[in-house]
Automatic annotation (TrEMBL):
It comes from Sus scrofa. This is Guanine nucleotide exchange factor DBS isoform X8. PANTHER family: GUANINE NUCLEOTIDE EXCHANGE FACTOR DBS, RHO GUANINE EXCHANGE FACTOR-RELATED. Residues 575-584 have a biased composition (Basic and acidic residues). Belongs to the MCF2 family.
Length: 695
C-alpha cells in the first residue's frame, strides 16, 4: 500500500508539474518586441512619428508623421528604431493588411516633402497600403509641389500609391474623421506622453509576467526533482527552504498581478472619466493584451498552488514519518531498557519488611516507567491518525504501532508477574511471621503460668483452658502442611527461603509439642480423684495423749510450712518453674523433664545466636571502619577532624571483640554437644586461657 500511495502522490505531482510547465511555457514562448519603449524612450519622445490608434476603412493601422521641422536631422538609426517599434505594436492580422501613412507637411517646403517621402519609402520595415501627403499650404510651395510631383513621379515609385492632398477635408475622404487626431481635424483623443507611459507599463508588465513564469518554472523543476530526506533535521530544512521560496514566488506573482491591474485601470481611465468615450483600436488591443497576460498569470498561479499543495503534502507527510520513526526509536529503546530492568528484579525478599520494601520499589519503578508507556501509547495513536489520513507510508507505520503495543503488553505482563511473585512472597512471610509470633506467644504462655496456682484443681483447670484456647488459635496462625507450602509457593521458594520455612516449621512443631505435653499434664491435675471414704472409729487412747505434737506431726507441720513458703515465693523463671512443677507432680515427671530440655535448647539457641551475631558485627566494624582508617588510599575520605582519632572513635572495641571471641558464649557454640547442655562447664574448662585486656 505504501508503494501504491506513494506512486499515486508522485503521479499527481507529475501531472500538476506538467500543467504548471505548460502554463509557464505559454507565457515564455510569447514573442516580445525586439525593441521596447523603455529602450527608445528618448527617440519616441521626439514625436516625429506616432501610432495614434486610428484605422483606415479596411482596418489598416495609421501611422502619422506630424509636422516636424527637424525631420531631416533625425539619424537613420533612430528613424529605423522608431519605425520598427511602431510597426510591431499592431496585431499580426492588422499589420498584414498594411499600414496607412499620413505625412503632414503643410508648414514645410517641397524639398522637405520630397526628402521625407524618399526616406520613408527607402526604410519603412512593414507593408504599406497607402501614403497620404498633406502638401505645403503656401501658394508658391503648393504650385511647386504640384509641378514637381507631376514631373518627378518616377522618383516616388513605391509599391503603394502616394496621394498628394491639399487640405484636411480631402484627407478625411480617405480616413474617417473619428480615426484622425485633433491636429488633423479629427476627433480621436490621443496624448503622446500618455501613450508612451501606457506602452512602457504594458511592456514592463509583459516582461514581469515572463520573468515570473521563468521563476516558477525553475522553482517547479527544483521541487519536482527534490528527493525525500531521511532524517527530521534535513526534512525540516528542506520544507522551510521550499516554503520561503514559495512565499517569495507568491509575492512576485502578487506584485505582477497588481501591476497588471494597475496598467489595465490606466488604459480604461478615459472610460472611467467619461462613459461616453470609447477606446481606439490600439487601446483595445493593449487592453486585450493585458487581460490575456493577467489570465495567463492567474492560471499559472492556480497551477502552481495545486502543485505546491501536493508537494507540501508530500514533504509534511515525510516530516511526520521522520518524526514518527525518530520517536519510535527513542520509545523502543526506553521500553527495551525497562524490560531489561524488570528482568533484573529476581529477589523475592528474605523477610516481611524486605518484601514490603521490594513492593514499594516496584511501585515506584512502575510510576517512573509510566511516562515511557504513555508516550508509547500516544505514539501509537499518532500512527493511527496518520493511517486514517491516508499517509503514503502506511505499511511502514502500522507494523511499528503493533510492535509498540506488543512491547507495552510485554512490559505490563512482566511487571504484573513480578508483582504476583512479590505478593506470594508477602503472603508467605506473613504466614511465617504469624507462625513465629504464635510460637513465641506459646512459649511465653508456658513460661508465664505460675506453678503454685496449678497445684489446685481450679488453678489447673484455668491453666488448661488457657492452653486449649491458645491451641485453637493455631488453626489461623500455624503453617499447616509443608507439602502444601512447597506446592503453593514453588515459584518463589529459594534455598534460603526454603530453609527459613523449615526452621519455622520445626519451631512450630516443638512449641506445639510442649503445649500438648503441658495440656496432658494439666488434664491429669485437673481430673477429680474420687477415693472411697471408710469410716474409722477414733482410738480412745488418742484422747488421753499429751497435747504436744508427735515427731510425725511436727514433720507434717514442717512440710506444710515449707510448702507454704514455696507458695509465698511466687513464680520462678521458666526453667525453675518447670523443675518445681516436676517435683510436685511426680506422676508427670518424665514428660516435664522433656519439656524442660526443649525449653533449655531454645534458651541456649537464642543465647548462642545473639552472641554469634554480636561477635560478627564487631568484626565487621573493626575490619570495615577501624582498619580502613589506617589505609592511605582511604585517607581522602576521612574528614580532617577525625584523622588520628581512631582510639577516640573505637575505644576498646577490639578488646571487647577478643574477649567475646575467646572467652564469651561464642566458644560455647563451637563446644561439643555434651558441654552445651551445661554451659557453665564451657567457661570452667577455659579458666586456663590467658586473660585479655578486655576482662
Amino acid at each position: 500500500m505504501t508503494l501504491s500511495l506513494l506512486s499515486l502522490l508522485a503521479r499527481d505531482l507529475s501531472a500538476l508539474w506538467l500543467l504548471l510547465k505548460t502554463r509557464t511555457d505559454e507565457i515564455m514562448h510569447q514573442d516580445l518586441s525586439p525593441l521596447c519603449a523603455a529602450d527608445i524612450q528618448e527617440q519616441l519622445k521626439k514625436r516625429f512619428a506616432y501610432l495614434s490608434g486610428g484605422r483606415g476603412q479596411d482596418g489598416s493601422p495609421v501611422i502619422t508623421f506630424p509636422d516636424y521641422p527637424a525631420f531631416g536631422d533625425v539619424p537613420d538609426k533612430e528613424f529605423q528604431n522608431v519605425m520598427t517599434y511602431l510597426t510591431s505594436i499592431p496585431s499580426l492580422q492588422d499589420a498584414g493588411i498594411g499600414f496607412i501613412l499620413v505625412i503632414d507637411r503643410r508648414q514645410d517646403k517641397w524639398t522637405s516633402v520630397k526628402a521625407s517621402i524618399l526616406r520613408i519609402a527607402a526604410s519603412f520595415p512593414a507593408n504599406l497600403q497607402l501614403v497620404l501627403v498633406l502638401r505645403p499650404t503656401g501658394f508658391f510651395q503648393r504650385t511647386l509641389s504640384d509641378l514637381a510631383f507631376r514631373f518627378n513621379r518616377d522618383d516616388f515609385k513605391m509599391k503603394v500609391p502616394v496621394i498628394m492632398l491639399s487640405s484636411v477635408p480631402e484627407l478625411q475622404g480617405y480616413i474617417d474623421k473619428s480615426q484622425l487626431t485633433e491636429d488633423l481635424g479629427g476627433t480621436l483623443d490621443y496624448c503622446h506622453s500618455r501613450w508612451l507611459c501606457h506602452r512602457t507599463a504594458i511592456e514592463s508588465f509583459a516582461l514581469m509576467v515572463k520573468q515570473t513564469a521563468q521563476m516558477l518554472q525553475a522553482f517547479g523543476t527544483e521541487l519536482a526533482e527534490t528527493e525525500l530526506p531521511n532524517d527530521v533535521q534535513s526534512t525540516s530544512s528542506v520544507l522551510c527552504a521550499h516554503t520561503e521560496k514559495k512565499d517569495r514566488a507568491k509575492e512576485d506573482m502578487r506584485l505582477a498581478l497588481d501591476e497588471g491591474r494597475s496598467v489595465l485601470e490606466s488604459i480604461r481611465e478615459p472610460l472611467a472619466k467619461s462613459p461616453e468615450q470609447s477606446l481606439n483600436q490600439d487601446q483595445l488591443d493593449s487592453q486585450t493584451t493585458v487581460q490575456r497576460l493577467l489570465a495567463q498569470l492567474n492560471e499559472t498561479e492556480a497551477a502552481f498552488d495545486e502543485f505546491w499543495a501536493k508537494h507540501q503534502q508530500k514533504l509534511e507527510q515525510c516530516l511526520q514519518l521522520r518524526h514518527f520513526e525518530q520517536d519510535f526509536r527513542e520509545v523502543k529503546a526506553a521500553l527495551d531498557a525497562l524490560a531489561q530492568k524488570v528482568a533484573t528484579f529476581t529477589d523475592v525478599g528474605n523477610s516481611l519488611a524486605h518484601v514490603k520494601h521490594l513492593l514499594q520499589d516496584l511501585t515506584s519503578f512502575e510510576e517512573k516507567s509510566r511516562a515511557a508507556v504513555e508516550r508509547a501509547h500516544a505514539l501509537c495513536q499518532a500512527g493511527e491518525q496518520l493511517i486514517e489520513h491516508k499517509h503514503y507510508a502506511v505499511d511502514s507505520i502500522r507494523p511499528k504501532c503493533h510492535e509498540l503495543r506488543h512491547l507495552c503488553d510485554q512490559f505490563s505482563a512482566a511487571v504484573g508477574h513480578r508483582r504476583g511473585l512479590l505478593s506470594q512472597s508477602l503472603e508467605l512471610h506473613c504466614l511465617l511471621e504469624a507462625s513465629m509470633k504464635w510460637c513465641d506467644e506459646g512459649i511465653y504462655l508456658l513460661a508465664s503460668q505460675p506453678v503454685d496456682k496449678c497445684q489446685s484443681q481450679d488453678g489447673a483447670e484455668a491453666a488448661l483452658q488457657e492452653i486449649e484456647k491458645f491451641l485453637e488459635t493455631g488453626a489461623q496462625n500455624k503453617v499447616q502442611e509443608l507439602s502444601k507450602i512447597y506446592q503453593d509457593y514453588e515459584a518463589i521458594l529459594t534455598q534460603d527461603l526454603l530453609e527459613h520455612v523449615q526452621k519455622v516449621f520445626q519451631k512450630q512443631e516443638s512449641t506445639e509439642e510442649m503445649l500438648h505435653r503441658r495440656q496432658a499434664s494439666l488434664k491429669k491435675l485437673a481430673a477429680k480423684q474420687t477415693r472411697p471414704v471408710q469410716p474409722v472409729a477414733p482410738r480412745p487412747e488418742a484422747l488421753t495423749k499429751s497435747p504436744c505434737a508427735s515427731p510425725g506431726i511436727r514433720r507434717g507441720s514442717d512440710h506444710h510450712s515449707t510448702e507454704g513458703s514455696a507458695l509465698r515465693r511466687g513464680p520462678y523463671r521458666r526453667a525453675k518453674s518447670e523443675v518445681s512443677e516436676g517435683r510436685v507432680r511426680g506422676s508427670s515427671a518424665g514428660d516435664e523433664e522433656e519439656s524442660l530440655a526443649v525449653l533449655r535448647r531454645h534458651v541456649m539457641n537464642e543465647l548462642l545466636d545473639t552472641e554469634r551475631v554480636y561477635v560478627e558485627e564487631l568484626l565487621c566494624v573493626l575490619e570495615g571502619y577501624a582498619a580502613e582508617m589506617d589505609n592511605p588510599l582511604m585517607a581522602r575520605l576521612v574528614s580532617t577532624g577525625l584523622r588520628s582519632k581512631k582510639d577516640v572513635l573505637f575505644g576498646n572495641m577490639e578488646e571487647i571483640y577478643h574477649f567475646h571471641h575467646r572467652s564469651g558464649l561464642f566458644p560455647v557454640a563451637r563446644a561439643p554437644p555434651a558441654e552445651t547442655r551445661r554451659p557453665g562447664l564451657c567457661f570452667a574448662g577455659r579458666r586456663s586461657l590467658p586473660p585479655s585486656r578486655g576482662r
